[in-house]
Design brief:
- The protein folds into two domains: 3-171, no CATH class; 179-291, Nuclear Transport Factor 2, Chain: A.
- It is 53% helix and 17% strand.
- It is built from twelve helices and seven strands.
- The protein has helices at 3-26, 29-44, 54-75, 104-109, 116-123, 127-138, 143-150, 154-171, 179-195, 198-204, 227-240, 286-291, and strands at 96-97, 205-214, 222-225, 244-250, 253-260, 263-273, 276-283.
- A seven-stranded mixed sheet has the order 1-4-5-6-7-2-3.
- Strand 4 (244-250) and strand 5 form a beta hairpin.
- Helix 3 (54-75) runs antiparallel to helix 6 (127-138).
- The two termini are 40 Å apart.
Length: 297
């Protein structure tokens, strides 16, 4: 095996880890793949003979690539995740898997309880805060290795991560650890929704539940707050839905994928805490769902 082949093989060993870093940084599976590819290009153009820790070197490189992508988003003034009136919702890409079989690379992507709720909070951080928090708190990269990426001191980088940590802890609801219990709650919610049972839905929803829907460019999203509003919407949809649904996992959370004539029409991920649904994140853009590989098969 030639030198180039050896380098490529070593890079492939790190690819799942790099995708996990990029996904947490960008919230987009396609952009994460682009960032991984750009990291390979940089590696291929670099003499790494003196690099003692290739994994650490690659992690800092992909961190810098993702930071540049995030900063370019800001400079282009892309639409925020949610506007001030709650009328615009743009959810990060979900990682979808079956209830019984989880691909090892998908498991790496969503390890450490990286649910959609947490990804949404990460979207609200500044690029520098997100980099400091993701690399340090999620991947244990020392601050003195993160600081040069941000052109800051280690102390300043530590402050960025601390500020991001407070925002994450305050805004991302912790989920129940028991997957079987979370699944029971979701199944009870779905059964009540299909019956159009408003009162039963109220017993399953947290009083402060938040439901976000992202319909893409052609189907404006919506934000619902409070058990009564969410229950009324779920009862109306469930009582009228004529397709088929099945349980899947989205970022390790129980979720319901719905299909009409074999085409995906919605994907609803649930965050369950204390036996109640505290958040719902609903994808209703069929093109996006197909692009993410959701199918009735």
């Amino acid at each position: 095996m030639g030198g180039d082949d050896v380098l490529a093989a070593r890079f492939e060993e790190h690819r799942p880890h790099l995708r996990a870093v990029a996904y947490r940084m960008l919230g987009s599976l396609a952009e994460a793949e682009d960032a991984v590819q750009e990291t390979w290009f940089k590696l291929d153009r670099t003499d790494v003979g003196e690099v003692a820790n290739l994994g650490g070197w690659l992690t800092t490189v992909i961190g810098r690539v993702c930071l540049d992508l995030l900063r370019s988003r800001v400079s282009r003034r892309e639409d925020p995740l949610q506007d001030q009136d709650g009328g615009l919702v743009r959810l990060p890409d979900p990682v979808i898997s079956g209830m019984q079989t989880i691909d090892p690379e998908q498991e790496i992507l969503t390890a450490d309880s990286v649910g959609i709720a947490l990804m949404i909070v990460l979207e609200t951080l500044s690029p520098a805060e997100r980099l400091a928090f993701v690399l340090h708190d999620m991947f244990s990269v020392p601050f003195d290795e993160i600081a040069p990426i941000l052109a800051r001191t280690s102390a300043s980088t530590r402050q960025l991560a601390s500020r991001a940590r407070r925002r994450v802890q305050g805004a991302a609801p912790a989920r129940d650890s028991d997957l079987a219990l979370r699944r029971e709650v979701v199944e009870a919610f779905l059964a009540a929704a299909r019956r159009g049972d408003f009162d039963a839905l109220l017993t399953i929803l947290d009083p402060e539940v938040v439901a976000r829907s992202d319909g893409g460019a052609l189907q404006p999203g919506r934000l619902r707050r409070g058990a009564a509003d969410v229950a009324s919407g779920a009862a109306l949809f469930g009582s009228r839905f004529v397709g088929e649904s099945r349980l899947v996992l989205v970022n390790g959370e129980p979720a319901m994928a719905s299909f009409v004539d074999g085409r995906p029409v919605s994907l609803a991920a649930f965050t369950v805490r204390g036996g109640l649904v505290v958040a719902m994140d609903i994808y209703t853009d069929p093109e996006r769902l197909e692009r993410l590989g959701l199918s009735a098969a």
